[in-house]
Amino acid sequence: MVRWTEHEIPIAGGTLRVRERDSGPAVLFIHGGLVNGHLWDDVVNQMGGDIRAIVPDLPLGAHHLPMDPDADMSFAAMAGRLTEVLDYLDLATVVVVANDTGGVAAQYLLVEHGDRVSAAMLANIDCYENFLPKLFFWFPALMQVPGATWLVAKLLSTRVGRRLPFTLGLLVRPLNKTEANLIMGPMWTNSGTRRDLKRWAKTLKKKQTLALAKQFKTYQGPVHIAWTDKDVIFSPKYADRLATDFPGGVRLEPITNSKSLSPLDQPGEVADRLRDLIEAMEPATE
What b/e sequence results for 248-260 when a residue is b if at least 16 CB atoms lie within 10 Å of its CB, and e otherwise? Predict the structure, then answer.
């Protein structure tokens, strides 16, 4: 069995748990809210050791290491922390792969730290005016209600709660107990994690993604857009816009039989799209 190396990396405002394994082109995997880096485990497994996978647990509600109580919880700050991770691991540049809300951190990396990103793959992400998607408009306000984060965590730890990502249209199937515990478990047991969730939710403003979109043309590297064929939360029109607005944008064939969380629904197809991106970066040979 291939083993992960786990780091606890000091960054502004606290410490990040970061796992890495294998060797090859360095790929930074960015997850979204209410899950952690284990979202990407099956994708990394599918890559078969062909990349150096860098998988942080961002403080988005399911992280193992709570941040300092006064830490900046905005996505702009998180993008800066990811560059600190790259410095710690002695990586000049990486390929960035992002899904769901983690796409906002990826957009900040592209437009504010583009010199650290050799290429990117964006897979069903929050962007433009679709932040947060209409289905989740209530989320930031609800998380500020006293006791709400505990109640949400408690719900997600139940059988009914594990079905919610399927019920809400994020997945084509319910999560099993093992998966849910792996990708969401810290939220259920760690009050510091829930405190960070409340503070992060308060920062979620549509003006961020609208402002980011105006700066897409500043990033000249390849940006592959890997949308799915059954997503009702992230419309394909946003994939088309991203492919048009990034100078190096490429709209890929849809990932089949998948909704928003394609790393869980179809890790093999996500890995195939990532291989295509890495191959496209390789210099042409005679």
Answer: ebbbbebbeebbb
Q: How many CA atoms lie within 13 A of 278 on its CB side?
A: 20
Angular region, 148: left φ>0, alpha ψ -120 to 50, beta rest: alpha
- Nearest partner of 148 among 261, 270, 63, 61, judged by Cα: 61
pLDDT confidence band for 74 (50 / 70 / 90): very high
How many CA atoms, within 13 angstroms, populate the side-chain half-sphere of residue 163? Answer: 4
What are the φ/ψ torsions at residue 217 (nearest 5 degrees)?
Answer: -70, -10
Q: Please tell me the total number of residues recorded for the chain in this structure.
A: 286
CA 48-260-186 angle, to 5 degrees, is: 75
Confidence grade of residue 285 (pLDDT, cut at 50, 70, 90): very low
Looking at the DSSP bridge assignments, the partners of residue 117 are 94
- Tell me how far apart the alpha carbons of residues 106 and 39 are, in angstroms, rounded to a whole number: 16
Q: Which of 241, 242, 247, 249 is nearest to 220 (CA)?
A: 247
- DSSP notation for 180-222: HHHHHHHHHH-HHHHHHHHHHHTT--HHHHHHHHTTGGG--S-
What the block records as the tokens of 129 is 């005016």
In the chain, what are the domains?
5-281 (3.40.50.1820)
**Residue whose C-alpha is closest to residue 219's, from 76, 140, 117:** 117
Query: How far apart, in Å, do the first and last CA atoms of the chain sit?
Result: 37
Distance of CA 157 to CAs 29, 35, 133, 217, Å? 25, 13, 24, 42
- Calculated CA dihedral for residues 125, 129, 133, 138, nearest 10 degrees: 130
Q: Using one digit for the tens of pLDDT, what is the confidence trace for 224-263?
A: 999 999 999 999 999 999 999 999 999 999 999 999 999 9
Structural tokens at position 198: 């409340």
